[in-house]
TrEMBL record:
A Pfam match: NAD_binding_8
Keywords: FAD, Flavoprotein, NADP, Oxidoreductase
Family designation: Belongs to the FAD-binding monooxygenase family.
Signal peptide from the UniProt entry: none
Record EC number: 1.14.13.-
Enzyme class at the top of the EC tree: oxidoreductase
Classification lineage: Bacteria, Bacillati, Actinomycetota, Actinomycetes, Kitasatosporales
Isomerase found in the keyword field: no
Repressor keyword on record: no
Name the record gives this protein: NAD(P)/FAD-dependent oxidoreductase
């Protein structure tokens, strides 16, 4: 279908019909329950293959100014911004063996960031680092995380291979008691939680998964001892192996070309194809990205955020597929349709969406040789239904003789596993190794998951407060009843495809709150009235995403086809406006959130 045909109402109606059919073919009655967590008998899937064993240490019984839960970019940025405010005792507690979060765990072959490195890597101005590629490999990003932690002296007090097990507000000391799975019990005047969103790996609940006698692991715990090689490839251990990979999301798209290069034979078990657009990665110089003056990275990052938030800019500095497709991805932000009639906007949006997806499907036809494989690789849904992906090697991998695409849509995924391999459509595929690129559970990490019990003022559990009152915050960061506890994340704030930028703005805000509380001798705790006012802002003009996601193929964006119950209510006007709002609020007054410290109990 050409783009001009896509503009006709008949073509649009046909697309709608096809999208509906493809969705119906995939929705499963068990929804999010189809997955297994990596615990109990599957706990070994989550073990840390990179830490090189646990270093024994004595449990801590001391006190710090700030405990930061999580050592990914959120925690690192919180630490860095606190240091800039002169806070001395900052202790980051991290489950992994080092800083890096996502980039610590995900080291699979082919891993890259799909957001431009010059806007994704934070604190480039502050560290003087200029990335070498437009889209950086994972290891470069992980090393940058370490660079920031070193520069801001976060290693001194950090606890690695340690999980926080509880946070309890102690009225008498006006501090949090932090306990961990290493027997620590220490006090922190403030706690910042930065526990991430896609941090708990999930496995498909395939019948018989436990019977398979070959080797298995998840992409976020890559077993280089088995495969050989590095994230750059050279997986010599696979040269005589029949390897299967389950999953063709953003991870699958990056890992498949590397596996294809080295596996004896590769079977790609696909349920829903990703949209795979042009990558065009290339080496960059400081000159290419205008890294010739102070503040260049901040300007570039702001420029990117403005564009993907629907703001008008004079020049598109990043000029890639994200900025070109910004209107399709953030389509429901009021900034994209505030100038026109909503219905007309949605009609125009559907046409642009169809044109984009036709282009994506035509790309499959151009690159892939086998007509049957072409049909299987074409995505039939709207652009923003699933995370778009970008690759100049993924589709090409299916032209290799040692690669077979096995479509599992008709059976809602792999049917079952046996001792020898996997069964799809009654055919058994014998395998030596099966790699799960099956992603992560959403909303099950950190303080909202029940895995990290939090007891606030008067011993009230955070989860009970959430059940009884619903989520209530000021700006997404702080809640009444939970003094000096600051959450970084998207709930009741705003997010963006460039998530590290969002985290940095949140870290700046958290550090400012803590600095103000220190200066005033106060605690950080919003009044119920301030929370009410913020909830009213969230409700006003909140874009209705439900209709859009209800029509999408299933995935973690729409709770496996059930709409979007997992999505936290977000600030309706996008990340750019949200950051401006926070800045103004900090400049004008922080009174809404500072309270007198309760006198210590005798
Ligand atoms: P996803 O959840 O996006 O993909 C999981 C894949 O596993 C899907 O293709 C899914 O199919 C498939 N799957 C699940 N169960 C089965 C089954 N029973 N049988 C067959 N297939 C199955 O996880 P990813 O790890 O790919 O990506 C997660 C997120 O991580 C991304 O959306 C992105 O936000 C981030 N990411 C970012 C990168 C970056 O460069 N910035 C790189 C990689 C990831 P189906 O679609 O049908 O459910």
């Amino acid at each position: 279908m050409t783009n001009s045909e896509a503009l006709s109402s008949e073509a649009l109606a046909e697309l709608r019909r096809r999208y509906r059919l493809e969705r119906e073919r995939r929705v499963r009655p068990d929804g999010t329950r189809q997955y297994l967590a990596a615990d109990a008998e599957f706990g070994y899937y989550a073990a840390d293959p990179y830490a090189g064993g646990t270093v024994e240490r004595e449990p801590l019984r001391d006190g710090v100014d700030v405990a930061v839960v999580g050592g990914g970019f959120g925690g690192i940025l919180a630490g860095a911004r606190l240091r800039q405010r002169g806070v001395e005792r900052v202790r980051v507690i991290e489950r992994g063996g080092d800083f890096g979060g996502t980039w610590y765990w995900n080291r699979y072959p082919g891993i890259h960031c799909d957001v431009e490195s010059h806007v994704y890597l934070p604190l480039l101005d502050e560290t003087g680092y200029v990335p070498e590629w437009k889209y950086a490999p994972g290891e470069e990003i992980r090393r940058h995380a370490v660079r920031i932690a070193e520069k801001f002296d976060l290693y001194a007090d950090a606890l690695f291979s340690t999980s926080v097990t509880s946070l309890t507000w102690e009225e008498s000391s006006q501090a949090w008691i932090v306990t961990t799975d290493r027997g620590d019990e220490f006090r922190a005047t403030y706690v910042v939680t930065a526990t991430g969103t896609l941090s708990e790996l999930k496995l498909p609940g395939i019948p018989g998964i436990e019977t398979f006698e070959g080797h298995t692991f998840h992409t976020s715990r890559w077993d280089y001892a088995y495969t050989g090689g590095t994230p750059d490839g050279g997986l010599t251990g696979l040269s005589d192996k029949r390897v299967g990979v389950v999953g063709t999301g953003a991870t699958g798209v990056q890992v498949v070309p590397k596996l294809a290069e080295d596996a004896g034979h590769l079977y790609v078990f696909q349920r829903t194809p990703s949209s795979v657009d042009v990558r065009a990665n290339r080496r960059t110089t400081a000159q290419d990205v205008g890294a010739d003056h102070d503040g260049w990275a901040r300007e570039r990052r702001d420029n990117f955020l403005r564009i993907v938030s629907g703001e008008t800019v004079e020049e598109d500095l990043v000029a890639d597929q994200w900025t070109a497709s910004a209107g399709l991805l953030e389509k429901l932000l009021p900034s994209f349709h505030r100038r026109g009639d909503r219905k007309a906007f949605e009609a125009a949006y559907e046409v642009a969406d169809a044109a984009k997806m036709n282009e994506i499907r035509a790309r499959v036809e151009r690159i892939v040789a086998d007509p049957e494989t072409v049909e299987k690789l074409k995505p039939w849904y709207r652009y923003a239904c699933k995370r778009p992906t970008f690759s100049d090697t993924y589709l090409q991998a299916f032209n290799r003789d040692n690669v077979t695409l096995v479509d599992t849509a008709d059976t809602h995924g792999i049917e079952r596993m046996t001792e020898r391999g996997v069964v799809v459509g009654g055919t058994e595929y014998a395998l030596d190794c099966l790699i799960f690129a099956t992603g992560f559970s959403v909303g099950v990490s950190g303080v909202h998951s029940g895995k990290l019990p939090v007891h606030g003022r008067g011993g009230i559990p955070l989860l009970r407060a959430l059940q009884e009152r619903g989520p209530r915050t000021l700006h997404g960061f702080t809640s009444n009843g939970f003094p000096n506890l600051i959450h970084l994340g998207a709930a009741q704030s705003a997010s963006s495809v460039n998530y590290t930028h969002v985290l940095d703005e949140h870290a700046v805000h958290a550090a400012a709150l803590i600095a103000a509380a220190e200066a005033e001798g106060a605690v950080i705790e919003p009044s119920p009235e301030a929370e009410d006012a913020w909830l009213a802002v969230l409700a006003e003009g909140a874009p209705d995403h439900a209709w859009f996601h209800a029509e999408c193929t299933p995935g973690y964006y729409n709770a496996e086809g059930r709409g979007r119950p997992n999505a936290p209510i977000a600030y309706p006007h996008g990340a750019f406006t949200f950051h401006e709002l926070l800045k103004r609020w900090r400049e004008e007054s922080m009174d809404d959130v500072l309270r007198a410290r309760t006198p210590a109990q005798p």
